[in-house]
Known about the structure:
Elements: E1 7-11, H1 16-27, E2 31-36, H2 39-46, E3 52-56, H3 62-75, E4 81-84, H4 99-127, E5 130-135, H5 148-168, E6 173-178, H6 187-193, H7 199-202, H8 208-220, E7 225-226, H9 232-241, H10 243-254
Helix pairs in contact: 1-2, 1-8, 3-4, 4-5, 9-10
Amino acid sequence: MSERPKVALITGAGSGMGQLAARNLAREGTRVAALDVNEQGLLATAESSQSIRTWNIDVTDADALAAAIDEIEAELGPIDRVLNAAAIMPLGRVLEQDLDVFHRVMAINYNGVVNVSKLVLPRMLERGRGDLVNFASLAGWLPTLYMAAYDASKFAVVAFTEVLYHENRGQGVRFACVCPPPVKTPLLDQARDTTWPKLFDKAAQLEPQDVLDAIDSALDNDEFWVFPGKGTKLTWRLRRFLPNLLWKRVHDAEGF
């Protein structure tokens, strides 16, 4: 089992993967700083443990984040694990989605990861320890109809995190870039409320705990890429070597 952090910062902690991660870590004795714009969700997260403190913050606000991180370290101690899980996923055809949707998706899913990483990583490097876990997605490798905004944001997280790792490897901080297929979290509800790809009906949806277990295993084994779920890594390889085959599957599923 991966070494338990003493203090963890989790974005998107008001629901889904971030909420479960916060509860798991708190149960194991970690002091958790839970961040989200969803105040009601944060209250629900914190109900499970006195070890969870909440900060109602938008990850796109770098100044607010900087102040919160100072406060977290002053009150809870040095942050030694970050899970960047905040994300949104409204779907639709490129020409039918408003420009502000594209900008908002990128601001939260990518810029939020950049903001937190740049604010916390220097502290970890100075101490020579810590875990930086950024949630990308299999969608960060595999573009799909209706998902241009989300795909682009996750492609950006993949590239950013890979470069960040190689620029800072060997300095005591462990990095993980998590690339799961669809996971059973409220994030999928945003797809249902906008445009639901038929391809999702053909894909097995992972349990959130399976993803978190895969992260722990990757950290234990010093593995940077995390591809949870049976067949996920195979799909990643097919995208690299047989992209037209995957696009045929997408078009066949969606009917155009």
